[in-house]
Structure formats: C-alpha cells, structure tokens
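Pilot study result, target chain (1892 residues):
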Amino acid sequence: MGRWMPLLSVALGLLAALLTCCYAEENYCFASRAKSCSKCLQSGIGCAYCPDENFNGPRCDLYENIKAHGCSAKTIITAESRMSIDRAQAIDMNLAQSQVYPQLVSMSFLPGEERQMDVEVFAPTKGPLDLYILMDFSNSMADDLDNLKSMGGELARLVRELSDDYTIGFGKFVDKVVEPQTDMRETKLRQPWPNSDPPFSFQNVITLTNNVSFFTSELREEKISGNLDAPEGGFDAILQAAVCKSQIGWRSESTHLLVFSTESAFHYEADGANVLSGILPRNDEKCHLAPNGTYLLYKEQDYPSIPTLVRVLGANNIIPIFAVTNHSYTYYQKLKEYFPIAEVGLLQEDSSNIIEVMRVAFASIRSKMSIRAEDRPKAFEAQFLSTSGVVSEFGNFNVKPGEIGRFRMKLKAHRQIEDNPVCGLPSNENEGTIRVKPSTFNNAVNVKASVHCPTCECEKTSIPNAPRCHGNGNLVCGKCQCRDDWLGAFCNCTKAPSDTVTSMCKGPGMDEPCSGRGDCQACGICACYNPEQYEGPYCQYDRTQCQRYGGFLCNDRGSCIMEKCACADGWEGDACECPKSNQTCLDSKGGICNGWGKCVCGRCECQSSSLAMTSTCEPNFQFQLGACEDRRQCVQCQAWKTGEKKDEEECKKCPFKITMVDELRKPKEVIDSCSFRDEDDDCTYQYTVHHSNDPNVKEMEVEVLKKKDCPAASLLWLLPLLLFLLLLLALLLLCCWKYCACCKTCCQSCLALLPCCKRGRMVGFKEDEYLLRQSLLTSDHLDTPMVRTGPPKGTDVVRWKVTDNVHRGANHPQALIKPNPKELIQYPVSLRLNRKFSENLSRRESKDAEQLRKDVGDNLNEMYKHIPGAQKVQNTSFRMQRNAGKRQDYTIMDTVLPAPRSSYADIVKLTEKNVQSGNIHNLKVVPGYYTVATDREAAGAVEFQEGVESVDVHVPLFVKDEDDDKKKLQVEAVDVPLGIAEIGKRFVNITIIKEHASSIFSFLQPAYTYSRQDGVANIPISREIIEDGRTQVMYRTRDLTAKDKKDYLTVEGDLNYGPGETQKTVPVRLLELTEKDGLLEDKQVKQFVMDLSNPRQGAKLGRYPRTTVTIADQPEPSVMMFKKSTQSFNTSDPTYTIPVVRTRSTDIPATVKWRTQKAKRFNLSGPLKFNPGELEKDIVIDPSAHPGPIQPESFQLELFDPSSNASVGERNTTTVNVTNVMAPTQIGYVSQKAASPGAFLPEPGNPKARATGPRDIHLTWDPPPGNPTGYKVKYWIYGDPENDAQVLDVKSPQAELTELYPCCDYEMRVCAYNIVGDGYETDIIPCKTMEDAPGEPGRLAFNVISPTVTQLSWAEPAETNGNITAYEVIYTPTDDEMKPVGAAKKVKIDNPKKRMLLIENLQNAQTYQYKVRAKNSVGWGPFRDATINLASQPARPLSIPIIPDIPIVDAEAGDEYDSYLMYSNEVLKSPTGSKTPSVSGDDYMMNGKWDQNFLFPGGSGTRNLSTSSSPMSTLSSNYRGAGGSFVTDTTTTTYLSGAGSPYRQDMVRGGTHTTDVIMRKRSENRGYTDENIRDSIVMGELSSKFPDLDARLTPGVPDTPNRLVFSALGPTALKVSWQEPHCERDILGYCVLYQLLNGGEVKKINLTTPAENSVIIQDLLPNHSYLFKVKAQSQEGWGPEREGVITIESAVDPKSPLSPMPGSPFTLSTPSAPGPLVFTALSPDSLQLSWEKPRKPNGDILGYVVTCEPLHGGGDLRSFQVNGDSSETSLTVQNLTENVPYKFKVQARTTQGFGPEREGIITIESQDGSALSQYSNQSMTRREVFHLPTEVNTRTNVSHTMVNDPYFSEGMMMTTQHTETSGVLTRQVTKEVVQRSVMGGTTVTKKLFYDS
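Predicted structure:
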C-alpha cells in the first residue's frame, strides 16, 4: 500500500488538473501552483485555498472550482480588500478657488483587483490667476517689446476679465553668453546693438504682483539685447521660471499660466554639447537665480530637454502658452503635442496682437481639462473615464468654469510585473499616496493605495508530527510538510535501494524508467525532464501530442492533458474546434440557420436549395440578381395577373405570397425597395421585400402597393376615328405625290411622324473608317460622330458597343489566350448627371467637386453592391462633352469600378436599368447616356433629343504597349431601344498605327564637364539614321545649380540635319566667376541641363534625351600612365607598341614626354599629345630602324614632364621584355595539332578594345601575315584564372563581346588560326565596361511623426553600378486602388549620403505613394516604392519628430527644388531617448564594407549609433579605443562553376556534396555591386558587435558572419556574399552550405582563404527556396552560422517547370515571414510592437503568435495571441523593465499551420543612465532575426545609414554645425573672420577659423 500511495496521489492530482483545465486560459490561481496558503491568496483576486486535509483536488483555485471539487464552503479560505472615504467635504461653489471631492480616500487592492470611484471637481469662474510673461529679448524682437510696453492698460483689462484675484510678472531671455551663441568680443559684450543691454541668458525682471501700474512702469525701463545664432535659449528660462517658486512668486492656490513669446526656434538638450561652447553636464532642474534675478549656471550646464520641461511644468502646475511668429510656428505646434495642456498662438511680426493671442489661448485652456494621477506607485495603473464610462484622453473633459465637473477614476493593481508577483515588490512600489487632480489645479484627491498581500492564520497553527503525515511531518493548512529524509504527499516514503526504485518507476509494458523522459527519484517518483511537456506518474504523456486545429494545439482553446484536449468553457471537439454556443449560426431574425439547416460545430449546414445561401442559410439575393429582380415576375402575376407568369399555373409555382398594402414601409426597414414598369399597361408598380416578424416564417415577406402609378388616361374611344382620318390623309397625300414635287419633302416629314412609316428616320455613324497614328494621339478616347437623318422630331436612344483587336483572327495566338474570369479589372464608367457643369467641378480640390464626388461615390456604391466581388468606385472626375445635343452643358461623370472580369454583362445591364429610370439611388442622372468599358470591349448609349441631328460617341481606344503595329477596333451601333429610327451605317472601323522612327536623336553621354577657362561648352548631338532624309530636333538649356546670365548663357533652337548628317554641336557660352563668388569657399557644384524635344519628320528621341553639364572652376588634371607595368615582344615583331592611357578630365588636351632607359641599341624620347576625348595613345618603336642586330633584351620607358593641366600616374615606368621567337605554348585553347614553329601564324597586330556599353566590348585587330581561317578571342574577368576564360570564334578581325558585367575590368587575348592550328596570341588587352544605371534603392522606412509629417529613409541600391550622385523622391496622393488623386511632387537630393527626407504638411488621413530612385553618371535607375497612410499608423508620441541635418520638404510648397528644400537642426527629444540627438551623417565605408572601428581614445565604452530605419529603434555598433584598425582593402570572390563544368568534381562524403572552387580577384577593390546583379537582398544586422549577446562564445571563436547578401545573376545563378565577422583570432576560412528548403542533398563549399568572402552558384532551380548557411573558422573552432532562405523567382517553360524562359525577368524573394519588427517606446516600462503582413503567407492568415522573454533568462516566456490579417498589425506590451534586453518573436498562424518567425531584440534604456550614456547616442537597441520553423535563423537589417557623432578626446571636442532656417544660412567652425554679402534677399554668414 505504501508503494502505491504516492502514485495514487499523483494520479488524483492529474485528474483534478484535467477537470479544471477548461480554465487554463485565465485561471491564474491554479497556474500559480502555490506551495502555501498565503502564496495562493496572493496570486490574485478570486483565489481561494482549501485547508481540508481530506481534500484531494487542487488546493489553490478559484472559489467556485474548489467548491465544485468537494471542499466544504465553511473551510475555504479567501481574502478581501477594503475601501474607505476618509475626508469628503462637499464642494462650496461660493468659494472662489479650485476644489475636489472627495479629498482623501483609502483603498487596498488584491493583486489584479480593479476599483472605480466618482470624482467631482470645481473651477471657479474667476479663480486666482498667476500670469508670467517670458519674452525673447534678442534684437529682432525690438518692435515686439515696444508694442508690449504700450499695452499695459490692455493687459490689465485682460487679467481683470479672467480673475478678480490675479498677479502678473515678467521675465526676459536671450541665450547662453558663450561662443558661438553670443558674440564674445568685448565691445559686443557691453552693447551688442545700439541702445541695448549686455547679453544675458535669463532674468526675472518683475516678480508676480497685482500692482499693474508698477508692472507697466518697470516694463517701460527695459531695453533689448542680442545674440548671434537663430535658436534662442528659452528652455533655460522656462525651467528657471518654473522651479524658482519663491523668486517668481507663484501662489499655491492659483492657476499658473506662462506666456512664452519669441520669433525663433529653441536650443534643447545636447546643443550645449554639440556646439563649440562645450557645455557637457545635464541640467540639474534646480533654481539658480541670483538676487537680481539672473540665471547663474548658464555656462556650467546644458539646456533642458523637452521631456524635462514637460515633467517640471506638470509638477508645478504651470500651463505654457507659446506666442510665436510664423517663422517658428510649426516647431512650437509640434512641441505643444508633448504637453498635457498647452496652447500655441500666432503672433504678427511686431507682436501687436499678443493680447488677442492671450485671450484666445486662455479661453481654449479653460475649455479643456486634463486629469493626472501623480506619484503613482509602480504596482498600479490608472485610467479616467467620462461619467458614461468612455475612456478619455488628455483635454477631453469639458468642464466649464463655475460648474461642477464629474469624471470616473479607474484604479487597478497589477497582478504581476515582469512575471514577478506584485506582492514581492518593495513597499514603495506597491503602496503610496496617489494625487488625482486636473492639470490646472493644486488641490487633489489623495488616494492612499496599497496592495493587500494576505496571509493565512492556519500557517501559524501547524500540527507537528501529524498522523495524517505518518508522524514524519507537520500538517500545515491541510498539507503535509515532511521533515528529514521523508518524502511523498503524506511523508510515508523514504529512499530505497536503486533496483527497487527503478522498478517502481516503470509502468505496465514500459522498458525504461519514467518512459525515458525523466529521472527516477526516491519512492519511485518520476521527475520529468521537462514538466511543461511531459506529465503522468511515469512521464508517459506528451503535452504536445494532442490534436491540432488550424496549426494550434487544441485550437488554442484548451489544454493538452494526458494527450487529450481538455477544452475551455464554451468549446468542444477532439481539438476544441467547435464552439458550444450557436451564436455564429444565428440568422438576421435571431433564429438558427433560418430553419433551413442545422448548426454543427459553430457553422450552418444548409439544406440543398436552388437559391444561393448565406452562411446562415438565408437566401443571398445580392449574390444573384437582387431581391427585387428575383421576385418581380411573381409579384406581377399575383397582384395584376400580368407579366411572363400571368398564366395561372405558372403563377402558382411562385414560392411566396404577396400582401397588398396601402402604404409601403420606409427603405430603412426593408431589405430592398422595388419599382418596375408593367409592360401591359405602362404603369409603374412598387413593392418591398423584408424579413417576417414571425421567427417561424422563413420566407421573405413581399408587400405590394395597391395603387399603380399610371400615365394620364387616354381617350381610347377616339382611336378608331383617328385611324380613319389618318388613312384618309395618307391617301390624299399619295395622290398629290405625282403632281406636286414641291410637297415631297413635306410629305416625307409628315410620314415620318406616323408609327407605320418609321423608316423615314435613320441613325448611323458619319464615317466608315478612321486612321490614327499612335504617336499623335492626345487622348485615350475618340469622339466619333453619329448622325440622324430624316425628320428630327422625337427622341432616339442608340446603343453601341466597341470591340478591340478585331483584325486578329480566331486562331491568333493572343486570341487563343482566354482571360481569367475571376480577375479583378477596372471598369471605366461614364454617366451624364442631371446637373449643369460648372468650372468648379473641373478643379478636383474644389468643395463643389469634392461634395459631388462623395455623392456620386455613395450612390454608385449602393447600386453596384449587388455585383459579386465589386469594390468601391474610385478616381471620379467631371467633364463636359461637346456635340452632345441639347445636353452638352450637363456634367459628364467618369469613374472606375473594380470588379471581376466575369461581371461585365451584369454591370452593363444594371447600369442601363438604373439610367433608364433616371435615378441611381438618390442620384439624378440623364436617361439615354452611359458607357461601361473593360480593357478590351465597351458598351454604351447616346441620345438624340428632338431637333438634334448629330452627337459624338466617346469611344475608348484601348491603347496598350503590347498592341500590334497596326490594330483595328470596330464600333457598332447595336439597336434603338427608344425611338422610331432605324440603323443605317452600323459599323465604323478605327485603325491605329505604331510608327517606327526614321531617325533617333540623342546626346552621346548623359553628362559632360567643361572648365570655365574654356569659355564655351561644345555639346554634341548625335543622330542615328534609320531612313535617310531631312529631319530636325529642338534643344534648350535649363538651370540647375548653375544660373542663366551668371554662370552661362542659355540657348535654345532647332537643329536641322540634312541627308547623311549624323552629328552636330551646340555651343554654350560659359561666364567667368564674379569677385564675390570667387571669395566664397565650399561653393556648390554648378550644373545645367540641355534637353532635346519635339523631333520631326518621323524622328524620335533616343537613350540620352537630356545631358547634364558641369562647369568646373578648376578642372582636375588629367592622369597619364602606362597601361601595363610590363610589355612583352619577340625579336620577330616589326614594331614595339606601348600603350599610354589617361583618366580624368579627358575632354581637354594634355601632353606628356617619354624616354627610353637602359636600351642597348637606342636612346629615344619624344612628346605624346592627347586630343580632347582621346583616352589612349601608343608609343611605337621600330627596332629595325636602329643599327645592330635585334637581340633579346629588357629596357624601360618613362613618362615625365606633363603639361600644366595633367599629371603622371603611379605607372610612370614600364618594362619592355624582348625575347626570341618560340612556338606557342600548349595552354588555354591552343590547338594540339601544331607541327612546327614556322607553321604558326604570328599574333594579330594593333589589338584595340573599346567598351560600347555597360555589357558590351568591341574588339578589333589587324590580320597577321598569312591566310588565317579565323580568329579565337578569349576573355575573362580581371583577376580570374586565364584557364576559365570564355572563347569566341570569329571569322573577321573584330569581335563583339556581349552579356558582360557592367563597370567591370576584363582581359582579352586574340590569336589567328589556320589548318595547322592556333597561332601566336597577343598580349593581354584590358578593357573596362561602362557604368550602367543604378538599381532600385533599398527598402523604404518611415518614422511617423504625426498624421501629416513623416521621415522617409532608404538604403543605397544594392547595384550602384557606379558612384551614386543624387536621389529623387516622388510622393503622390492615391486612393485605395493606388490611383493618383492629386499632383505628384518631386524632391531631388544632390547629396547622396543624405538618404533621409522629412516631409511636412501632408494631407491628413490621405494615402500617399512614395517612390525613390538613385542616379549615377549614367542616369536614373528604377524606383523603389511604398504606400502608407500616416493616419493608420500607431501613434508614436515619443518618437523623434525632426532628425537634424536631413532634407525637410513642405508638401504644400511649390514645385521647384530650391523653393522648399531645406535642412533642419531642430530636434525634439523623447523621454526614453538618447542624450545626444540622432544625427544622420556621412557613411563610413571602405570597399563596400562598413568601417565600424572608429578611433575613440577618450573612452572605452560601447556607443549606440542611430540608423535611418527608425529613431526609436537603433542598432548597435562599437567604437573602439585607440589602436583600433580599419577593415582590409581587398575584396575577393569565389566562383563556383555549374553543372557540367570540367572543373567540378563530385565526391560523396557522408551525404555531403563537396565542390572544388577556384579563386578570383576583383579589380580596384570593388565589392559585390560590380557584378551583373539584377536583384539583391541583404540579411544580417549592421554589426554583430552586441557585447552582451554573444557572451557565451568561446574566446577566439568567430562571431556570426555579418550582412549575408544574396544577389541574383540569373534565374539559376546566385551570388552569396558576407562580411568578415568579429574574432579575436585570425580567420582561417569559411564554410558555405546550401540545400533545398523542403529537403534534399546538402551541398558544401569550403573556402580555405580568409580573403574569400563570396561565392557564385549557378546550379540552382528557379522558383525553389534554398536554405544557405555561412560560418567562419579560427584556430579555436567554427563559429555560429548565419542563415538565410532565398528564392529566385522567374518565368519558366510551361512544358518544363525547371527550365527558365530565355530573357525572362527574375527577382529574389524571401520566405513568408512577418515584416520587419518596429518598436516604439510608450513609457519606460511599455512599448508598441508592430509588423507587416507576410508577403507570401503559406495559406490564409488567421492571426499571429507573439512571444517575449528576457534575453539572458531570469523571467518566464510570455505569449500573446493577435487575431486578424490586416496589412499592418501592432501589439502593446507592458510591464517591461528598463535596461533589460528582451527577445520578441512573431509568427503567423495560417490555415496551413505556422509560418516562419521574425525575431527582434530590444532594450528600453533609461534616460538617467550611466555616465557613459550621457555622451552616447543610446536610445533603443534592436536586432532582427528571421526564423524558419526549427533551425532556420536569419538576422535581417534594413538600415544602411550610420551616424557621425562628435568625437570626444581628453576633454577636447570639435564639431561642425550646419543650420538652415528662416532663409539664414550659417556655417560655424572656429574663431572668426566674418564675410557678409547679400544675395537675393538671403543673408549668408560664414565664419572661418585660422590657426597660426
């Protein structure tokens, strides 16, 4: 018995857990597994403990659960909290001071408990008021001060209006009296301006007083002062005015207002450190005023930060009012958002309206009330609600002065903080007095709040040696506590021999103790290795093996107990997949499945029906024709016995009965209101369809209006008489026909009026055919006239249709491609509104157009909602149409309807039906006109009104890029549904011809550089002749940074080319610099552009229709050098040709001299002259022209004495080696058939290579003597082995090398061959391909400042293909369908290192598309685009609103760059932000690698660098101490040949495929960007040097390789690159492994050379995902792997899915992980995490699983469920700890299971950190890791911008500040020599500093 007692107790415990598992989700009592009664009660509110010693269930659980398990209610121990109101004095409204009720409350809370309390507040109508005016006294405010002096009386009247008990004070400020804020010359320190006071920081001039006369007289004595820089030191003044209570005179019972008046921006924290003043200590937030009121420590401490001001003003109950001018209004508007209550008023330039600004601000402040909970302990959270229970934000409490305001406070005690019980916190964190008060009050409700941590009395009265515990333990609260070595639930077990114990741990049929999942301990008790996974007395149950639903264990609606799902309350099923509730099966009437089905597992299973059903088995009429159309025939037959079912038998088949009523229900009460015309009597009948009020009635009820709406009654009895008279008249007219020819026309007109003679009127198209040229089309529509002949009496409506590409036969390849009927396409729809057109409607932004657009959208959406799959209309515009008859002044509405392609017929039918009725819902339209189009057909109608003979049909032309060279459309007049006309000319054909150009005009290159000294820039314009003849083109110059009549003279005109002419030159005169410009340093590069336009006579523009001309003031010298350091010739060569090349400034002439040295037979020299444009010249030596035999020798040539505009490069000498004649060696491609040396052909002569494009080289040579059969050209990349060269066989002495890499060095050799074999080959011929346009920039990142301001940043293109010179940003407002709804704006950024842009004044709640592209010397590359609506982004009040020194653009400014592009240094700091502003500066890169080892001799700590991705989430990289080394200069690449290569060897070693690789080097130390890369993806953070993340690595083992880069070279070729990891030892090599993601052979590449940092792999499969792993090795072993998953997507042959289509595009894609994690700090202990939807999820997304855990342990794993599949999802995570790194993982839950994980590591670092953080840029630290399930781990970084922080070295600091605000440009460096000049109203001040 003793053996089985422990097992029995365990089994009973598991049974109890099984019974209570339904509460697993929220039962924290049971989950706490409390070991004592007190710990149980402290687990949270509602927890109870059962002390009954005979109770076998869970002792700690919810009260109801314990009671249900059999515990006696009398014995259950629970805990209660208390609340008492200690002081509650009623509000006295007669007392003129602020009051609150109640005044003192005591509350205790159980952990997790929440309490609410009603609070009353009272603000008197004219309560005590303290008004302190703080004014900027810089010289620019002189007129403002004068106006304020004259307003003393008005100011007094204002404060008397506001309060009967007031005081008023005055203070002034300028800035710190230090360099460079203040001019420190002695004379300027005495008097900076005439009649001014010396400069000062802040001074309290007038202490708060109620004597207005004294205030006015003192103010009149004040004089202005002055300083230098534009921002002022107002923050110093605000802080001192707030904390110096006694000196200022603030009263405790009054309302405190501070009016801050200035026209300038502000200095903020870290400006004291970043400017030359060198003030480093932070502001101590204490009062430092001298007796005369001046601020003393302005030199000793920094400016305060914005968070400091917010906190200090709030603590002192001071409300700021910023009265500022337009120059700085936007800055203070942003600043205002940080304060609970603040106001900003716009001053006039002279502050003459300051009194009015104060009055408006006071009124606004009084209308707001912000409630605060001050001094709140960490264990509590507070919310404030209106009396209706709605949570209110700052300023939402509308309490009027003189009335009692009421609100509700909700106070909650946390249950846990950081996964630690709240009862374990220090006392100061779980108890304290909370002051609840309005921000304008001093009085507050004092809430004494404490967390009640109960203890159990039974723990104090234990039973020692209790019989229940077999005398071996004490019975405490019904539970045994064993002593000594006794074990078990009842202390009845001791340690036994191991064999006995082992057998006790084996269950029936088990071979291993504890199922092999645990340790067998004493008494035969199994201790499972992982209790969270394994359970049971023998650990035999796995808690992960229960059934899953949707990928979730037990559908996440229950717990896995003993390998069976125990479902939570309300759920059932084997996987808890079925809700017990039938709520999801309720129909619109509250019934279950409408009575047509049954509710099974939360879903309706409907009976079979011919009708389409909704998910609740209700008829889905909207899915078919609509409720009206579906019942029309049955209503007609039952009510009126008419219609298609008027036959009685047919009518009986109707599934419903109608009800005739006198009045129909209102439209809001029914499903649909219907109206149709009865064809039998031309009357209109109406009815409604609605649900029955009786829930037992399943069919819809139809109520029909008894009365029809019929036209006026006709005189039917006159009909026979009229017919007789008409016949008689017809006979008379026919008789007169023969005798009166003059009456013929009149008779025809009369006949046409008769119904029997309607052939008298005809309609048809005017023309038979139209021939159009596509290049001349100005519209995508053609107005095609339709005419009407015959009597123009009455109205005719003609329906028409148009079909595209009718010239294609039925078997045409394009005709055989059937479109997808489910494809969502755009349907252009046009209607004529019953409204006259006005000019306002043509302006999209006008109010009339906006209102009409809304009305049209609402009504059309209401009509088209019956079309399945239709979306809302978009891009609505308005126009007029000429030649539209009497309706041409009515408004034509054009819109676009997105809908499935298969809905075309339904859309046409529905549109026509509503147009005929004249109403579309509530929108009035003109009957007889509509157009509905697709991308290949259209239908519509036009109307001929009475008297109209011609109208235009607005025919769409369907112009597309893929159109044939000659395509034909056919327009057909279909029928006349209204009117008597017949169709005459039915068809009209429209032919559109694509012309091919006869000539192509282009500039030769996209950019030129000319020197001012040249005086003229001759710009060549090339013409490529396709069809010879005469032609012309227009040219014109335009300013960029160079200005007309200042730098050059603009030109424009026409160039005429005669037959055969291919090039002409346009001269542009360049002007000399003026004296003023010559004195300025750091001048902007002067550029202008020349454009080609308007080509004529069939010509078009070519590759370079624009060229940029740079005016170089002092051109760089040309560099000339020998092409090669050695030259080889043999004694049989007739001449020695030694090439000399030159670079830079190649468009100017240059000369250099040369001479021979150490030659045996000659001593030669001479000049070498390069003409403009020449890049290479040859020195030719004829050895036979000199005496003596030609012998083998070596001599040198030297270049010297270059011209003044040139220099000699590093290869100024070359060695010439002359050898004897010998046979060609048997290497490379030399034939094996060689017989004798004399039979071989000599080498070809004069080989020359010229790059003709970025991927092409043209190679020419002279044929050698003899009769060569052909030539072989071999070429390879410089640095690759010559053995790997490709060979090209040609028959002529020239070759075209194609498909090369752009901007890459190549080497070539040529040899001739004949029947004998290959001849001698030439020396190496080098050539470099041209640059190409750059690729698209890296991922766009947005830092949302506000709904109208965003900071946009981007990364450098992966394929720069040269040096990036500029970026262009285009942003366009769009609608939901990505269609532009406004004008696009462009911003050009000429500094390529500034990859950020701050865009202000965007439209609120408007979606924008942002596009960025890069430019190099070739031109612009493709755009990278992204779309975002700022209003939909999560609010980030702590983000940095303005980043310094980045471009700022005003979205509402003009279109010229210079008019609205500026740079800003105004930065707003975040409370958890860094102590140093985030500055975007130069990138530090060497050879494509980030150099992160900056010298930092002044300290040894780690500094965080802000990146462009998000200021609130910054990456870390290390500054090193002195001695840090830079990265190496060379970058090498390993080339891996593909399948079938002769250099590949396959060896199977344990399943691993090993491939030998061959090294190659890249020229000029270029990185991977020089490859032929079409697409690139970067994975890995900027730096892996997180000092605390990889601490577990063995010293000397390499870190993870940095920045894994994938670059697509083709649909099956990929380049994988990485950066060298950090390692304390030398890197010995790398290992690259890759395999298919879904399994397969692992291929391994070992790189034994440390310099190799990339491989090229060419045997991949298209559209297959591969897993790559890269790791590094040192002497200490292998380091961790960097992993990445990548797919090359491309089009493949349908017949062979593994074969890519030749020439098809290809791109890279990553696996379907959620988008990059974005962290936003909300408070020191909470953050918001957001991410984007996976780009390619593996199924439909059901939600996300988010986990969070401390990076280094010490806390439990927290898990969050986020439901939904929105494009961007966010989650707020609370209860975090400062300075602790956390690891977050986000994983999508889809219908197919779980997708890959995205991982991020984040730290919220405290503001008051260590001394080192004071100087660091430390804000938040983030690493992102990209996980696949199980083993895939990839770290992703989307940032490429590093920060240039100031350097600190032994107390010395040197920085540069560049500010551009308010039109004043200042550049400050050191001591001064000031030059001042005025240019165009802009003041330019430069300070230059010189050291002796």
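One observation from the pilot: The longest helix spans residues 719-737. A full batch analysis is planned for the follow-on phase.
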